[in-house]
Specification:
The protein has 420 residues and is an alpha+beta fold. It has seven helices and 19 strands. The protein has a five-stranded mixed sheet. Strands 3, 4, 7, 8 and 9 form a five-stranded antiparallel sheet that branches. A five-stranded antiparallel sheet has the order 14-13-17-18-19, with no helix packed on it. The N terminus is likely disordered.
């Protein structure tokens, strides 16, 4: 890389400038300490670049090579039944680029030839139907941005701070714009019988993922989606078609969707009984915990995104979401919850979609205990981890939406900690 903002001489200049004027930001050069990045011709200014035929499908700059999905080795006993995590600390705005959406597979990525893919609706319907992809494209479609969060997101943190980075503690989430057919239209085409109260979507992968979903939700806002952020779903995300279950836990969003059975009661399959269910202290389990509670996390600074510019003007940013609506407000604290300030929301505030917040302040260089707290449009406020443990104990690895704390030391290095 060329001269960057970390070059010692320039950093000295910046520190002096910040001390001299509150309005001073990075990037000002002076005659006394010339910044060669602006005073000298760079190689890319002296040679022609690649032409339009060099990159038929664009990829990020080579300087962004560190912005990748990552997994946790000890969580990944076998990659075909595992998870990787969205690099939240490197992203901004509200949408997740397709190639960075975390993946969770129970039996690897099914590589499906769309011409041979079918979606069947059977069970308690007047007319069982089989759709080709082309058939699906002839129904009216809609566009909606939704977050998908795995119920196991932050699951490793129930008993205490563990993984060092929001990619790992909170990265089992992505937020994309889906294009798809309302499931209601397909169910209406088949004609749901009056005793049809539940649906069971099934995946075409080797795990044959199945879940029970009440018919009210199926007829409300579920989508049979084939596009994400405008282009075809990625194979990892269920190409050619997946179920979108807005606001509800990721496990229900069946990928590689091949069948929807209509029934009169829930099936109580593995993924909704022994898995994705919270066992409480008293031995009872919470049943059908589908809606994802409001949650937020500061993505920068964070363990993978330390403060490198020294004290002075500092930008805190993060994301918040709720399975029950929008996020009108996020609070931020610098001192572990003693004092809270309202953050600034920026970007579209969409139902069951990710929201972006910022909080700018002058850092005096003393240690910080950073936290964010989401309020959703129903009035629900994100709880502390201690409150969650009081309500639910520590048996579960699911549905942890507690407030996250990052400790930032004098050098700007951040670490996953807990305060009580
Ligand atoms: N659907 C099928 N067919 N197979 C799967 O393994 N994993 C589920 C769900 N749908 C899964 C599936 C789980 S647990 C989650 S969290 C989401 O898909 C993950 O979606 P993603 O891989 O697009 O992030
Ligand atoms: Co999941």
């Amino acid at each position: 890389m060329s001269d960057g903002p970390m070059k010692p001489s320039r950093r000295g200049f910046l520190k002096a400038a910040v001390a001299g004027s509150a309005a001073a930001f990075a990037g000002r050069a002076s005659a006394a300490t010339p910044d060669t990045a602006i005073t000298e011709l760079q190689p890319w200014m002296q040679a022609l670049g690649e032409g339009v035929d060099a990159r038929p499908y664009g990829t990020p700059s080579e300087f962004e090579g560190h912005v990748v999905r990552r997994n946790v080795e000890w969580l990944t006993a076998d990659p075909v039944s595992s998870v990787n995590f969205t690099p939240l600390h490197e992203l901004d705005g509200i949408f997740t680029p397709n190639g960075l959406c975390f993946e969770r597979h129970h039996a690897g990525i099914a590589e499906i030839e769309p011409a041979k893919h079918r979606l069947m609706i059977n069970g308690l319907v007047d007319t069982p139907l089989v759709f080709t992809m082309q058939d699906l494209m002839r129904f009216p479609r809609e566009n909606h941005a939704y977050f998908l969060e795995c119920a196991a997101n932050s699951g490793m943190e129930w008993r205490g701070a563990q993984l060092n980075g929001c990619q790992f503690t909170h990265g089992m989430i992505h937020n994309v714009l889906y294009t798809g057919v309302p499931l209601r239209l397909l169910l209406e085409e088949a004609g749901v019988k009056t005793n049809g109260k539940w649906i069971m979507p099934e995946g075409a992968d080797a795990s044959a993922m199945t879940r029970s979903i009440p018919i009210e939700k199926a007829l409300d806002d579920c989508l049979v989606a084939f596009k994400m952020n405008g282009e075809a779903l990625r194979p990892e995300q269920g190409y050619p078609v997946r179920l979108v279950v807005p606001g509800w836990e990721g496990n229900m969003w069946v990928k590689w969707l091949r069948r929807i059975e209509v029934g009169d009661e829930p099936w109580h399959h593995r993924e909704e009984t022994s898995k994705y269910t919270d066992l409480l202290e008293n031995g009872k389990a919470r049943r059908f915990t589908w809606e994802m509670d409001a949650k937020s996390v500061i993505t920068s600074p964070s363990p993978q995104a330390p403060i490198t510019h020294g004290k002075g003007h500092t930008v805190i940013t993060g994301v918040a979401w709720s399975g029950r609506g929008t996020i009108p407000r996020v609070d931020v604290t610098l001192d572990g919850g003693k004092n809270w300030q309202q953050a600034r929301m920026s970007g579209p505030s969409l139902d069951k979609s990710m929201h972006r917040f910022y909080y700018e302040f002058d850092w005096d260089g003393s240690p910080l205990l950073l936290q964010s707290r989401a309020h959703d449009s129903t009035g629900y406020v994100q709880p502390t981890k201690d409150q969650l443990r009081e309500w639910r104990g520590v048996n579960s690895i699911y549905h942890n939406n507690g407030i996250q704390t990052w400790y930032v030391n004098e050098q700007g290095v951040a670490e996953n900690v807990e305060v009580s």
